[in-house]
Write a structure and sequence with these properties.
With 311 residues, the chain is of the alpha/beta class. The protein is 42% helix and 16% strand. The strands form two sheets. An eight-stranded parallel β-sheet has the order 2-1-5-10-9-6-7-8, with helices on both faces. Strands 3-4 form a two-stranded antiparallel ribbon. Helix 2 crosses helix 10 and helix 9 packs parallel to helix 10. The chain binds zinc ion (ZN).
Length: 311
């Protein structure tokens, strides 16, 4: 069974300004490394389509979608910039990029549901897990994973899906959208204290939040995952597993202070894959979130993909 990678050149063009860590070179680093290692031969690359408005409105309020679309369309015409917060800046290319990023997640979900692949990875930006139902924040505009999860539930006939978030930052936007939606179980770990400062008190019973202090390393995180994620995921028996795949918990990443290395991402991906194999016919849709040290990001994504593609 092949593993699909959804991406698009327009995701690269979204630009939040000189020196911003969430930059187009992140995608270049990933694709260059996949080519250099020959791993690209084990993957099937597809262009991410543009997302439908209806798909966005399953995770975001219609008001938010309308306002964001209007703002981004205006920037396409004027070529100006708009700051949603000091770190979340839209430019003329942002509209197409956010539509491709969410469109990738939806298309990946449909492809995996149709049995075209067991797993799909979305090499897209902007990331999504800080985008709440009503707000852009933390480099995120649309919540790609939440949009895809709701698409699987509302349009593809699934009753239960899991979201696994291993980004160093708490996925506050995803939690805001899916808290108390009993069709979704979200499990995550994140550094605390760290941006955005949320997550220590879960907003719903369908959340397994593991805040960990700075300088936590792989062995401790593996224990926590075995103790807290795996039993809840097995009890929930998801029919599909979504991953908010952020690689900024890597030891070399300067946006967080956790100590993961490639072997930890391999181990975590393997545990997630086992859950998907046990309950979900192996169905996994993984979406890129953070990861800002270009070398560590590229190597970690390759490790993640090697497990998903079983190569
Ligand atoms: Zn992050």
């Amino acid at each position: 069974m092949p593993t699909l990678v959804f991406t698009h050149p327009e995701c690269r063009l979204h630009d939040m300004g000189r020196g911003h860590p969430e930059c187009g070179q992140r995608l270049d680093a990933i694709t260059d490394h996949l080519r250099a290692t020959g791993l690209d031969a084990a993957l099937i690359f597809r262009d991410a389509p543009l997302v439908d408005r209806e798909a966005l409105c399953r995770a975001h309020s219609a008001n938010y979608v309308n306002e964001l679309e209007a703002t981004l369309q205006e920037l396409e015409v004027t070529g100006e910039h708009h700051a949603f917060d000091p770190d979340t800046i839209a430019c003329a290319h942002t509209h197409r990029a956010v539509q491709r990023a969410a469109g990738a997640a939806v298309a990946a979900t449909e492809a995996v549901m149709r049995g075209e692949a067991r797993a799909a990875f979305c090499a897209v930006r902007p990331p999504g897990h800080h985008a709440t139902r009503d707000n852009a924040m933390g480099f995120c505009f649309y919540n790609n994973v939440a949009v895809a999860a709701r698409h699987a539930l509302d349009m593809m006939g699934l009753q239960r899906v899991a979201i696994v978030d291993f980004d160093v930052h708490h996925g506050n936007g995803t939690e805001d959208i899916i808290a108390n939606d009993e069709r979704v179980l979200m499990v995550s770990f994140f550094q605390h204290p760290l941006y955005p400062g949320t997550g220590t008190r879960p907003l719903g019973d369908n959340m397994v939040n593991l805040p960990v202090p700075p300088y936590t390393r792989g062995p401790e995180l593996r224990k926590l995952i075995e103790q807290h994620w795996v039993p809840r995921l097995d009890a929930f028996a998801p029919q599909m597993v979504f991953i908010s795949a952020g690689f900024d918990a890597h030891r070399e990443d300067e946006l967080g202070q956790l100590g993961l290395v490639e072997a930890d991402y391999e181990w975590i991906t393997q545990r997630i894959k086992e859950v998907a194999d046990r309950h979900a016919q192996g169905r996994i849709v993984s979406c890129l979130e953070g990861g800002y040290n270009l070398g560590a990001l590229a190597r970690s994504v390759a490790t993640h993909l090697r497990v998903l593609a079983e190569v």
